[in-house]
Amino acid sequence: MEPKRGNTIYVKGTNMLTEKLCQEAFKKYGNILNMNLEKDKNVAFVTFDKVEGAEAAIKDMNKAIMQDVRLRVSFARRQPLQEGPGDSSSPWADVSFNRTKPRHQDKRSVLSYKEDEDLFSS
Questions:
Q1: Would you tell me how many other CB atoms lie within 10 Å of the CB of residue 9?
Q2: What angle do CA 80, 82, 87 make, to 5 degrees?
Q3: Most-buried pick from 53, 70, 93, 101 (CB within 10 A)?
């Protein structure tokens, strides 16, 4: 079985994991496309623009201590691979970069009211 790969990593902190701490810890491994932080669980998901950045972050930062927070870092499970803009080899890339086509067009006409018009009087 092939080991897990991807450009999104899972970060678990022993206490007080913050966005600032994650930014400082992982910015040297590449461009961060997305970061989701679950403060109540001391967990973050960090998505890099390249798989190599995620691999290097895991190798260097797993079991590291930053600002009195011990980090556990691994590849995230079930995270879509987000490629950079223009590369739609991932099924989720278009969604994450807002390149999806609208599914319908609203055919309703716009109804506007005058500012001084009282809508609630009879």
A1: 25
A2: 130
A3: 53
Amino acid in position 95? V
- Spatial separation of the C-alpha atoms in residues 99 and 6, rounded to whole Å: 21
Phi and psi torsions of 33, nearest 5°: -80, -35
Q: What DSSP element (H or E) covers 51?
A: helix 51-61
Higher model confidence: residue 117 or residue 37? 37
d(CA 90, CA 81): 6
> In 3-state terms, what secondary structure has residue 115?
coil
Biggest CA-to-CA distance, the chain: 72
What are the structure tokens assigned to 2, written together? 């092939």
Enter the tokens of residue 77: 């499970």
N residues, the chain: 122
Confidence grade of residue 11 (pLDDT, cut at 50, 70, 90): very high
